[in-house]
């Protein structure tokens, strides 16, 4: 799989990863009045500040997506999108909704992996002194990104007593642990991509709901958020788990 897709996988991963920001930025444009009125009514902040909030989300998200896809100032774009996630978490009261908070953290994990990919490797703090791989900030970013990404799957576990749910939870939990500790990482991440893709298309089929119904927007939001997490996992498949992982330690054994 990697031999066939190695030239295209990183680009596909980036496109999937920024899809939720792209969709949300476009939604800010087409639902400008609704978004502004919601923020104004919720926070009592006035027309001007509500307008600034919507404008910041629109420019920040679309601008960040353009920079990431064009591979220009990727680090600044990632920090900007981190700020958008934090701003929306507070503005839309996601902080008190555990499911949406976990999904936002998973989305942040994908950005952390993208930030790690954009960092140049092999830089030493002092000229002529080799830097230790274990202390590389990039490797710890990859570890943090992997751990945050798999949080998404905690929202997909079903606590039912039937056999299928128990089996699904056991397999899912095993794959989550493998990705988090970095053991057989690429294979486990690819399996999670296929699993999450099937769940996303089946449960978040927003195209089957008329656009005027509120459920259409909810499913569309979930669909693109899940697609972004898939993008993060594809980055793990393409780039590997990094130095802080069982796969890397096995090479020393």
Describe the structure.
It is a multi-pass membrane protein. Helix content is 73%, strand content 0%. The protein is built from 12 helices and no strands. Helix 4 packs across helix 5. The two termini are 27 Å apart.
How are the SSEs placed, and which strands pair?
Layout lengths: L1 H4 L3 H9 L1 H12 L1 H12 L2 H25 L3 H18 L6 H21 L18 H13 L13 H19 L3 H19 L10 H26 L6 H7 L1
Low-confidence stretches: 121-135
Strand portion: under 5%
Series of H and E elements:
HHHHHHHHHHHH
Helix content: over 70%
> Structural class of the helix and strand makeup?
mainly alpha
State the major sheet.
Answer: none
Strand tally, please?
0
Count of DSSP-assigned helices: 12
Distance between the termini: 27 Å
* CA-atom Rg in angstroms: 19 Å
Mean pLDDT, to the nearest integer, reads 85
**Anisotropy-based shape:** globular
List keywords for this structure.
253 residues; mainly alpha; 12 helices
In a nutshell, what does this entry contain?
InterPro entries: Surf1/Surf4, Surf4. The chain has 253 residues and is mostly helical. The chain has helices at residues 2-5, 9-17, 19-30, 32-43, 46-70, 74-91, 98-118, 137-149, 163-181, 185-203, 214-239, 246-252.
């Amino acid at each position: 799989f990697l031999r066939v897709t190695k030239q295209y996988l990183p680009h596909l991963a980036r496109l999937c990863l920024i899809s939720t920001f792209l969709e949300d930025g476009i939604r800010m444009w087409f639902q400008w009045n609704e978004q502004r009125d919601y923020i104004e009514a919720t926070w009592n902040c006035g027309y001007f500040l509500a307008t600034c909030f919507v404008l910041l989300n629109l420019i920040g998200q679309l601008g960040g997506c353009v920079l990431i896809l064009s591979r220009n100032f990727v680090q600044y774009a990632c920090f900007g999108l981190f700020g958008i996630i934090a701003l929306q978490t507070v503005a839309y009261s996601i902080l008190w909704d555990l499911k949406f908070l976990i999904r936002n953290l998973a989305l942040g994990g994908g950005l952390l992996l993208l930030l790690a990919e954009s960092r140049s490797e092999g830089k030493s703090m002092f000229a002529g002194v080799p830097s230790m791989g274990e202390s590389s900030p990039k490797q710890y970013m990859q570890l943090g990104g992997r751990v945050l990404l798999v949080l998404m799957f905690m929202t997909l576990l079903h606590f039912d007593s039937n056999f299928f749910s128990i089996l699904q939870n056991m397999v899912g939990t095993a794959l989550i642990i493998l990705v988090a500790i970095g053991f057989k990482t690429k294979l486990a991440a690819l399996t999670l991509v296929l699993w999450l893709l099937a769940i996303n298309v089946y449960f978040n089929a927003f195209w089957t709901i008329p656009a005027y119904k509120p459920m259409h927007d909810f499913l569309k939001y979930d669909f693109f958020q899940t697609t972004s997490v898939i993008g993060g996992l594809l980055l793990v498949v393409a780039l590997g788990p990094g130095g802080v992982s069982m796969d890397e330690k096995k090479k020393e054994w």
